[in-house]
Amino acid sequence: MSAIDGLPPLREVIRTHGLAAKKSLGQNFLLDLNLTARIARIPGDLSSASVLEVGPGPGGLTRGLLAEGAGRVLAIEKDARCLPALADVAAAYPGRLEVIEGDALDVDPLAHLAPPIHIVANLPYNVGTELLTRWLSPASWPPYWASLTLMFQQEVAERIVARPGTKAYGRLAVLAQWRCDARIALRLPPGAFTPPPKVSSAVVHLRPLAEPRYPADPEMLSRVVAMAFNQRRKMLRAALKGLGGDVEALLSSAGIQPTERAEQVPIEGFAALARAVSDRDRLPGT
Q1: pLDDT by residue (tens digit) across 190-241?
Q2: Protein fold of 10-208
Q3: Listing from the earlier edge strand, what are the strands of the sheet with 72-77?
Q4: Residues of CATH 1.10.8.100 domain(s) within the chain?
Q5: Report field, pTM of the whole predicted structure over 0.90
Q6: Are strands 145-153 and 201-208 parallel, antiparallel or unpaired?
Q7: Taking the domain 218-282, which CATH number applies?
């Protein structure tokens, strides 16, 4: 592993600061700085952009982002043990790195950064999906972020980019692809991390569309999709009973066969169903 900056190798940083990864925090550190630099290049030129990083740990990806020219990085770290190592990185890149100790679920990035903001993170396994869902479901669209470059367990990454008719296709695929272009940009084996996780990992890159692919109320779409996939083995006429009324008529009006299962319905079909439910609920007496 060749150095990308004048700072010590990450293994030395971890040893110096006693940063054994904590399972309770979902930590798996990526130590190869060549790999972190490759991840930092995925969003494109970041020299005039701000970057939000969640869970930087000892700073491997942080160093990759800064070495590749990111204009400003805000790193949110919950583990106080990592702060001295990140302070060393900040000192090596004066004025370009701000570190906040806290939980990313509680921090408002807009209080610290101005758009365009690119989010780049080796997400802790225990909060990754929740953070992604939040970023995909803001109060208004387009969102404040210009791209998401996120590392997940490979199984989660496959669910984000899955196509209808596959076992991996589900709620995450619909929510992500309804509003974004999504692709797997890089795959990493367990041995790339310390400690090695039990599964492979993958980096997913998402770019927001100016408008969703198909019109629908976001909350209604989320409700319909969650209900459909919560009982994915059932036919939709049974899985969607919670919508009330004549479910088969709703499905038919959306161009969906009542005997289909959730994984067979494309995003366009779910959006049509969400519109049908919204239209019904607006009628007097419903």
Answers
A1: 988 888 888 999 999 999 999 999 999 999 999 999 999 999 999 999 999 9
A2: Rossmann fold (3.40.50)
A3: 97-101, 72-77, 50-54, 117-122, 145-153, 201-208, 180-188
A4: 218-282
A5: yes
A6: antiparallel
A7: 1.10.8.100
